[in-house]
Design brief:
about 0% strand; globular; mainly alpha
């Protein structure tokens, strides 16, 4: 069975996606070589080099997991993002919501809202997918909370669970939902390329903002929210990632100009998503959402920008290109 195929089926990846993965693996090989060379030259105890190698290792793992999910097609991709949502929801609620009286609310998030939302993705039930959490979930959670009889900080407690469900479940479920779109002039079996386009643009924006910031950045853009982000890093990273979006336009139904505009929107939404999630972390006095991924913090630290970019991308594509 071919891993990459020109005519995708349940266990194949479009040829264009295969080329992209090959390119990513080539970059990771080069980064691994550089990291090990710097480790031998600078010593094992250099914190910057150790952090670099940890990040490269984490990207190896994440890229392989993503490739495996795409290979298993829609079911594999939906399961992967269901697990990502589960991990993100766990990190969110662990940090902001620790009242034992609201245990039933958290159970509802994990074992009711989460699986039902991804069931709607799997069955392509767009109507319920789009309203289940923002309408029924948002009404159900405070009802369950009120049954505990505890009224102190009720609005705050309810808002936390609603926000956790919105970001960790609803927003992230838009990533595999891209596989359900039927676009004019774009083969349905190649929808995985839309996922790759979005993830590549958003994640490259994050990485390039870091690179530009370390290279040229001096002035902080939002020091109270994200002390590491600089004006030069933000502008340089977003501009560079927008250019990457233009270069990736051949794998999408977008023209180069359209891909650039969409890429810019994705980068901006990812940037603002990172700021919002950083504000929550700063409010609770933590640097990372968790330590699940070596060198990358928690799951939410990796997908915070995707949480904000994915719904916007999904609805832009569905509105303007849906058949």
């Amino acid at each position: 069975m071919n891993l990459f195929a020109t005519q995708p089926h349940a266990s194949a990846i479009p040829l264009q996606a295969g080329y992209i993965f090959i390119g990513v693996f080539a970059v990771l090989l080069a980064a691994s070589f550089v990291g090990q060379w710097l480790k031998r030259k600078k010593g094992r105890n250099n914190p910057t080099i150790s952090n670099l190698n940890a990040r490269v290792y984490a990207w190896w793992v994440m890229t392989l997991v993503l490739l495996l999910a795409f290979w298993f097609g829609k079911v594999g991709t939906v399961i992967l993002f269901l697990l990502i949502s589960f991990a993100a929801l766990r990190e969110f609620l662990t940090l902001v919501y620790q009242r034992s009286s609201d245990y039933n609310v958290m159970v509802a998030c994990f074992y009711l809202l989460l699986p039902i939302q991804y069931y709607f993705v799997l069955t392509e039930w767009y109507g319920m997918f789009s309203i289940f959490i923002p309408v029924y979930g948002f009404l159900l959670l405070p009802i369950i909370a009120s049954l505990s009889g505890r009224t102190e900080h009720f609005l705050e407690r309810t808002a936390k669970t609603q926000w956790a469900a919105m970001v960790s479940i609803f927003c992230l479920s838009h990533v595999p939902a891209l596989l359900n779109l039927h676009l004019d002039g774009f083969p349905h079996g190649q929808n995985v390329l839309l996922l790759i386009f979005m993830i590549a643009v958003v994640q490259s924006s994050d990485v390039l903002q870091y690179v530009w910031g370390k290279t040229l950045g001096k002035r902080k853009i939002m020091p109270t929210l994200s002390p590491s982000k600089t004006v030069a890093g933000t502008v340089g990273g977003i501009a560079s990632a927008t250019l990457i979006a233009v270069l990736l336009s051949p794998i999408t139904p977008f023209s180069p100009f359209q891909a650039g505009l969409i890429g810019l929107v994705l980068c901006l939404m990812g940037f603002f998503g990172g700021l919002v999630m950083s504000a929550i972390k700063r409010d609770y006095g933590v640097k990372d959402w968790g330590n699940m991924i070596q060198g990358h913090g928690g799951m939410l630290d990796r997908v915070d920008s995707i949480c904000f970019a994915a719904p916007v991308f999904f609805h832009i594509v569905r509105y303007f290109w849906h058949g």
